[in-house]
Amino acid sequence: IVNDVWGFMADPMMVKVVAETGAVAILMHNQDGTFYKNLMPDIITQVRSMIDFAVESGVDFDKLIIDPGIGFGKTSEQNLEVLRNLLEFTTLGRPVMLGMSRKSTIGYVLDLPVEDRLEGTAASVALSIAFGADIVRVHDVKEMVRVSRMSDAIVRGWTH
């Protein structure tokens, strides 16, 4: 899996490598600065452009995963708005990955150092699943697998 934190926009050769190898690619939204005319429509448009560029460059659409880029080119308030509106990314037709684990936004909201952000991460993971995330990137794997399984069972259903 190639996790491109600029969604093929910074290094155009990366898309060729992915296309040639057939690797799965995570296209993360990122930008210089935190100015947006209209946050969610701007990000959705940029991610759609990344997807289009990847497919036009020979990457299989079915091998793309999108990441809204929490913590990259966004303020803490914008990060929280993206999380609240995560379902909008499902319109792009690709799995959505979210990486909120231990992020500075959690630290700002809870006024905690990075090593004390487990509960904030758990809340973010649970809500990201409720809001449409298919994949979560975390540091505290054991604990967040449990949070993810329970959240997924509530949101998507569970059978014994």
Shape: globular
The largest β sheet comes out as: 3 strands, parallel
Order of helices and strands: EHEHEHEHHEH
Question: Which parts are unreliable, with pLDDT below 50 for 5 consecutive residues or more?
Answer: none
Percent range for helical residues? 40-55%
Backbone CA Rg: 16 Å
* Strand runs, count: 5
Quickly count the helices: 6
Structure description:
- This protein is mainly alpha-helical and 160 residues long.
- Helices cover 46% and strands 9% of the residues.
- It contains six helices and five strands; from the N terminus they run βαβαβαβααβα.
- The chain has helices spanning 12-21, 39-56, 76-84, 104-110, 118-130, 141-156; strands at residues 2-4, 25-28, 64-67, 97-98, 135-136.
- The strands form two sheets. Strands 1-2-3 form a three-stranded parallel beta sheet, with helices on one face.
- Helix 3 (76-84) packs across helix 4.
Structure summarized in a few sentences:
Helix content is 46%, strand content 9%. By secondary structure, it is mainly α. The strands form 2 sheets. It has a 3-stranded parallel sheet, with helices on one face. The chain has a two-stranded parallel ribbon with strand order 4-5.
List keywords for this structure.
160 residues, mainly alpha, three-stranded parallel beta sheet, two-stranded parallel ribbon, 5 strands, globular
SSE layout and pairing:
Layout: E1 2-4, H1 12-21, E2 25-28, H2 39-56, E3 64-67, H3 76-84, E4 97-98, H4 104-110, H5 118-130, E5 135-136, H6 141-156
Parallel strand pairs: 1-2, 2-3, 4-5
Helix pairs in contact: 3-4, 5-6
